[in-house]
């Protein structure tokens, strides 16, 4: 392109300013990408939730237990394919900061319901035979460098407290991208034998697999109706609604992130827009000369816009590269505090388009002012 | 033939009739040009003189299509400039007018070569053709050996020579010079005027120049004085002159 030399020469006119602008753009985009990743991490439960699964928990609250007999009654409802039950174990591995979710599972039905969480057959068979057995998600196993055969000491303050060592019989993977690989599963039978009487024969919540997602509303109503006016009333919701509700316990993450993201967006607009405005003002006489010798107003607008877009594109790419390197590191540092932080390709593409959009918008006002510049007035200012 | 009486025929390269320019300043109307007439033939070299605020630069801006008159008409090589749209006027300037400014107005981040090449970027010439044109123009002003220098690496006189090369590179119909030597010492001014003389004498260029300097003005075929918004013949020759420098 024959104008590229003119555009690039102008771009590099003030190198220090260019570096600072590109740098501030890069840092802002890194922050923006990080926020988007955090938001995506909190909403991932909703995104990957099975459309054909329901969660049944006590109407009173998540920590309220339900009788184990509810499972068979739920299974009898038409449209229900399988039912499994879970308990929150609430244990600590070595130190409280080493948080990961530990679930007491129902081995008979776990794999019928949670079909996307895959355990190698031989490992699963070992687990079934081992009352003190455990299965860890691949992410948690990698985090603590566990391997099959390791003994994992877990201390719990719930259910009378105490400490136990579990045998790591297997490691599960999720076959869904971004699926949860942080859980730690324990045998319900072992759990049930060792908890106080008040906790025996109970379930923390049930996970229901449906024959068809179309049955979700009907089956959910049927379950809640079945236990209505009993001592253990239920609240049944789709897995995605349950995940969304769970994420909201942290506060309105989406609103917080959108608010901060908006501030970042407008800061970027101001930084780039200000740079372009100063740059255009400094070059008033040169732009006037360009127009005098035959460059149209649109050509001048084009030059300013291209400069702004190049600044934002370079800053954006730099910010995304930083995010690509930094987010996995930050993710490891925040393990246990936040869900896994994953920088997806779609998020990178969004970041790139965001950078281009900010560049175009920030260059628009200075560009239009350059386009409308009256040559006679501009030359008189020299 | 340069005439200011409005009696020139339609063969004139530049024909100005009844040109008026009025500015509004603080609610007050200031008439800068009042019914100005001018005929300039191809190859003429005319200098405009007059006190500050007499309208010299305004006249040059109007002739170059940088400003629009309040009334009257300007016809250049058969094209009525006065009623052109802004975009057509821009295209017309690119084809027909070469500007030489007092402050040079070069792009500081481009080399002499790149500055001279700018008007050619608007044409369909190939890169090789552009290079040839630029080298020719820089050859005319004697700066071939400095073509890769940036303006900051050139003296004032050399910068003005680059401006002249930029003005002539697209072979415009006429050149407008606004105080081309106003920022130069006498020696550099003489060098610039020698180039301008050559453009008129050797290349038959039509040049309209504004200057405060009577010595510089004396090198033009005709000096016209602007007083109270009208042109008065004066200077070296007070009578209409033949084009090409012959009195």
Overall description:
The complex is a heterodimer of chains A (382) and B (247). In chain A, 54% of the residues lie in helices and 17% in strands. In chain A, helix 2 (15-48) crosses helix 13 and helix 10 (253-282) packs parallel to helix 13 (345-371). In chain A, the strands form two sheets. In chain A, strands 1, 3, 4, 5, 6, 7, 8, 9, 10, 12 and 13 form an eleven-stranded mixed beta sheet that branches. The mean pLDDT of chain A is 88. Chain A has 382 residues and is of the alpha+beta class. Chain A has two domains: 4-45 and 251-380, no CATH class; 60-232, no CATH class. Chain A has helices at 4-11, 15-48, 70-75, 107-113, 121-129, 138-143, 188-194, 216-226, 239-248, 253-282, 284-292, 297-333, 345-371, 375-380, and strands at 53-58, 66-67, 80-88, 91-92, 102-105, 117-118, 133-137, 151-156, 162-174, 184-187, 202-203, 205-210, 234-238. Chain B is an alpha/beta fold. Chain B has a domain at 43-66 and 96-236: Rossmann fold (3-Layer(aba) Sandwich), CATH 3.40.50. Chain B contains seven helices and ten strands. Chain B has helices at residues 56-63, 86-96, 112-117, 127-140, 156-168, 186-201, 214-217; strands spanning 14-25, 28-40, 45-49, 71-76, 79-80, 97-100, 174-178, 206-210, 222-227, 230-234. In chain B, the strands form two sheets. A six-stranded mixed beta sheet of chain B has the order 6-7-8-3-9-10, sandwiched between helices. In chain B, strands 2-1-4-5 form a four-stranded antiparallel beta sheet, covered by helices on one side. In chain B, strand 9 and strand 10 form a beta hairpin. The radius of gyration of chain B is 18 Å and the shape is globular. Chain B starts with 13 loop residues before the first strand and ends in a 13-residue tail after the last strand.
């Amino acid at each position: 392109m024959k104008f590229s030399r003119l555009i690039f020469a102008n771009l590099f006119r003030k190198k220090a300013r260019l570096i600072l602008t590109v740098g501030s753009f890069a840092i802002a985009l890194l922050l923006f990408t990080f926020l988007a990743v955090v938001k995506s991490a909190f909403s991932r439960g909703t995104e990957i939730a099975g459309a054909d699964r329901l969660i049944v928990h006590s109407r009173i609250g998540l920590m309220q237990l339900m009788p184990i007999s509810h499972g068979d009654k739920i299974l009898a409802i038409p449209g229900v394919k399988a039912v499994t039950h879970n308990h929150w174990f609430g244990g600590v591995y070595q130190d409280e900061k080493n948080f990961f979710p530990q679930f007491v599972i129902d081995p008979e039905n776990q794999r019928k319901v949670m079909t996307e969480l895959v355990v190698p057959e031989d490992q699963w068979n070992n687990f079934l035979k081992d009352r003190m057995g455990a299965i860890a998600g691949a992410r948690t196993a990698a985090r603590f460098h566990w391997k099959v055969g390791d003994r994992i000491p877990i201390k719990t303050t719930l259910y009378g407290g105490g400490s136990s060592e579990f045998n790591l019989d297997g490691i599960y993977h999720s076959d869904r991208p971004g699926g949860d690989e942080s859980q730690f599963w324990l045998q319900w039978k072992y759990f049930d034998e060792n908890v106080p009487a008040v906790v025996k024969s109970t379930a923390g919540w049930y996970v229901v697999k449906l024959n068809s997602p179309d049955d979700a509303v009907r089956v959910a109503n049927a379950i809640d109706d079945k236990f209505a006016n009993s001592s253990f009333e239920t609240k049944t919701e789709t897995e995605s609604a349950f995940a969304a509700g769970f994420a909201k316990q942290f506060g309105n993450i989406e609103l917080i992130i959108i608010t901060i993201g908006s501030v970042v967006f407008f800061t970027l607009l101001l930084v780039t827009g200000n740079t372009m405005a100063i740059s255009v003002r400094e070059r008033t006489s040169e732009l006037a000369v360009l127009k005098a010798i035959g460059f149209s107003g649109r050509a001048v607008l084009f030059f300013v816009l291209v400069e702004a877009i190049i600044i934002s594109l370079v800053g954006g790419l730099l910010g995304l590269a930083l995010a690509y390197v930094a987010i996995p590191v930050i993710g490891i540092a925040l393990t246990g505090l936040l869900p896994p932080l994953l920088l997806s390709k779609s998020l990178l593409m969004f970041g790139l388009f965001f950078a281009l959009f900010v560049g175009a918008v920030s260059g628009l006002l200075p560009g239009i002012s350059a386009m409308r510049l009256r040559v006679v007035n501009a030359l008189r200012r020299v | 033939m340069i005439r200011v009486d409005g009696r020139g025929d339609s063969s004139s390269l530049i024909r100005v009739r009844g040109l008026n320019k009025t500015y509004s300043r603080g609610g007050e109307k200031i008439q800068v040009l009042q019914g100005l007439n001018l005929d300039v033939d191809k190859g003429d070299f005319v200098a405009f003189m007059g006190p500050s605020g007499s309208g010299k630069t305004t006249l040059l801006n109007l002739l170059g299509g940088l400003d629009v008159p309040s009334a009257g008409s300007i016809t250049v090589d058969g094209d009525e400039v006065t009623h052109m749209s802004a975009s057509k006027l821009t295209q017309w300037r690119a084809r027909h007018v070469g500007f030489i400014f007092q402050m040079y107005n070069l792009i500081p981040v481009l080399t002499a070569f790149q500055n001279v090449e700018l008007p050619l970027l608007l044409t369909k010439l190939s890169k090789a053709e552009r290079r040839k044109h630029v080298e020719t123009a820089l050859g005319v002003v004697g700066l071939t050996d400095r073509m890769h220098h940036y303006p900051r690496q050139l003296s004032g006189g050399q910068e003005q020579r680059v401006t002249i090369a930029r003005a002539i590179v697209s072979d415009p119909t006429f050149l407008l010079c606004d105080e081309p030597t106003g920022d130069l010492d006498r020696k550099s001014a003489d060098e610039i005027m020698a180039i301008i003389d050559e453009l008129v004498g050797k290349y038959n260029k039509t040049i309209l120049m504004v200057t405060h300097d009577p010595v510089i003005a004396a090198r033009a075929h005709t000096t016209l004085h602007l007083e109270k918004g009208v042109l008065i013949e004066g200077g070296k020759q007070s009578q209409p002159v033949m084009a090409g420098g012959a009195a």
